[in-house]
Design a protein that fits this description.
By secondary structure, the chain is an alpha/beta fold. It contains 10 helices and 13 strands. InterPro entries: GlycoTrfase_DXD_sugar-bd_CS (IPR007577), Nucleotide-diphossugar_trans (IPR029044), Och1-like (IPR039367). One of its GO terms (biological process) is protein N-linked glycosylation.
Length: 363
């Protein structure tokens, strides 16, 4: 019996005992108290039994995924295993974005020699740790990335071969972030970013539990002219992405990348590991232009009234489409000299993080 149960039993006994202390009732009292103690112990013992959770070791089921039923005791037949469905556009919205922060630091190779990483690359990372003390943080390097891709996509050789073959750091890092978020979920952010608000505050209170993907705008043409390197009227950034694992946008994005890489390889008549893409090709195969195409396609599935990216222009507050939360320009894109982004030295109330544009992804 636990201490709390013992205290309850003693308290109740102390209340009953004086009533039966008279000599002529002592025998009856002893029997009654014994009966009472046995009854209470039996009742508490039954309520104290809590079945242990069932775990299937070796599976890739997430700790926060649906619980599997306990096996039925003999002589009942063995329980049939329940398949865990991968979230889709219809079933995904109940998932939460895990408390994980991911950053990637892949080394450059110059003339076959790996360059030593510069510690200054991570000088902005502390903001993410300080603002989100209860979050799990992971910096993914070359070895960890290779192991992650090989382990989680062993049944998809095209993904593994493409990732291993890509030599352009921008393309490689782009593909890796989508794969990580597809499997693990959480927040991916470039190393040249700073956090402004705790991630727990990124989703408005009335939308908690309804958001499976958070995307920000990096460019909004609004009523201005076109930009040479940006083919879209409005473009989503992918320097920071927050997502629940298994969001349907990621398999679509990965398929887009595989097709684009194969197309470039065929056009230049070189294997993947010999590709030397232009900046425009990087942006339109793995980068923000490609990401914008795929995300908007998913938005249109959720909201067919969206006909073109221009329909999202001039946003002044976050808006939910299906389970995708689209932020206004200041959400992930403050401090820029375009798109009506706040750039006067102040931090607007709708800013969640800031990109410092220190990285170089074209190598």
């Amino acid at each position: 019996m636990e201490p709390q149960q013992q205290d309850r039993a003693k308290s109740l006994t102390a209340q009953v005992l004086p009533v039966f202390m008279k000599r002529r009732y002592r025998t009856v009292a002893a029997v009654a108290i014994l009966f009472l103690m046995l009854w209470m112990y039996h009742g508490f013992a039954q309520r104290s039994v809590v079945p242990l959770p069932s775990h299937q070791f070796g599976s890739q089921e997430k700790a926060d995924g649906p619980a599997l039923p306990l096996a039925s005791p003999p002589p009942a037949p063995e329980p049939t295993s329940i398949p865990v469905e991968k979230p889709t556009a219809e079933t995904h919205s109940h998932l939460e974005i895990p408390r994980k922060i991911w950053q990637i630091m892949l080394p450059r190779h110059t003339k076959g020699k790996k360059q030593t990483p510069d510690p200054k690359v991570l000088e902005d990372t502390p903001s993410w740790l300080i603002m989100n003390p209860d979050y799990e943080y992971k910096l993914v390097g070359e070895k960890g990335a290779d192991e992650f891709v090989s382990q989680h996509f062993a049944d998809k050789p095209a993904i593994v071969e493409t990732y291993q073959g890509l030599q352009n750091l921008g393309m490689k890092s782009d593909l890796l972030r989508y794969l990580i978020l597809d499997v693990e979920g959480g927040v991916y952010t470039d190393t040249d970013t700073i956090d402004i608000k705790p991630i727990d505050e990124w989703v408005p209170a009335h939308l908690k539990g309804k958001v499976g993907l958070i995307v920000g705008i990096e460019f909004d043409r609004r009523d201005g002219g076109p930009w040479a390197e940006i083919p879209h009227w409005l473009q989503f950034c992918q320097w920071t992405i927050a997502a629940a694992p298994g969001h349907p946008v990621f398999p679509k994005m990965v398929s887009h990348i595989l097709e684009a890489v194969e197309r470039y390889s065929s056009a230049y008549q070189v294997p993947v590991n010999k590709l030397n893409p232009t900046s425009f090709e990087v942006m339109n195969s793995t980068g923000p232009a490609a990401w914008t195409d795929v995300v908007f396609e998913q938005l249109q599935e959720y909201e067919p009234t969206l006909k073109e990216l221009k329909d999202l222009s001039f946003m002044t507050e976050p808006k939910l489409y299906g389970d995708i939360l689209v932020l206004s320009i200041n959400g992930f894109g403050m401090g820029q000299r375009h798109s009506h982004s706040t750039n006067d030295g102040t931090i607007p109330k709708d800013a969640l993080m800031k990109h410092l544009f220190r990285g170089s992804w074209r190598g």
